[in-house]
Write a structure and sequence with these properties.
CATH class: Alpha Beta
Strand order of the largest sheet: 3-2-4-1-5-6
Structural class: alpha/beta
CATH topology: Rossmann fold
Order of helices and strands: EHEHEHEHEE
Largest sheet: 6 strands, mixed
CATH architecture: 3-Layer(aba) Sandwich
Length: about 170
């Protein structure tokens, strides 16, 4: 199973953090990223989970639909910036191994989740995701000795700076 952890695109400022929408830059970068992933066949998720915040939803829709118009895009609890990554880890333990999954969320939650899956603990953080950055993890058959939770390995880390210039 592959897991794609994706930070939302650049968003416009707003007094209410829950209503921040993607900026034009955020939309363009997300679509360019989707085009790159589609061309390279680097993105194989059959479902995209996103937080309830607008900027994560918009990123998930733009990315998912540009790669595969039939992809399931699902608002999922436990993906807010300050949520406990243990909630998502428990949900992943029940997720079908034959389906790849993408999660569009926020920092510091995604960095803590990636650190938990790879190292078995949420701190100190081993990762930082810039806006539109993606980390692809692969589930292994091994477990962390201290927690008995599934161990994940890094497949790749994509930064938006790697996109070809327009």
């Amino acid at each position: 199973m592959r897991l794609y952890l994706i930070r939302h695109g650049h968003a416009q400022p707003h007094d209410d953090d829950t209503k921040r929408v993607l900026s034009e830059r955020g939309r363009k970068t997300t679509l360019r990223m989707a085009t790159s992933f589609r061309a390279s066949k680097a993105f194989t998720a059959t479902q995209v989970w996103h937080s309830p915040l607008v900027r994560a939803y918009e990123t998930a829709i733009l990315l998912g639909r540009a790669i595969n118009p039939d992809i399931a895009v699902v608002e999922t609890d436990g993906l807010l910036p300050t949520d406990d990554p243990l909630l998502v880890q428990a949900r992943l333990a029940r997720y079908p191994l034959i389906q790849d999954l993408a999660i569009v969320g926020h920092e510091p939650h995604l960095a803590a989740l990636a650190t938990l899956l790879v190292r078995g603990q949420t701190a100190p953080l081993a990762f930082h995701l810039k806006k539109n950055a993606t980390i692809m993890l692969r589930r292994t058959a091994k477990v962390h000795a201290a927690t008995n939770q599934v161990r994940w390995r890094i497949g790749w880390h994509f930064a938006p700076e790697l996109l070809p210039l327009e």
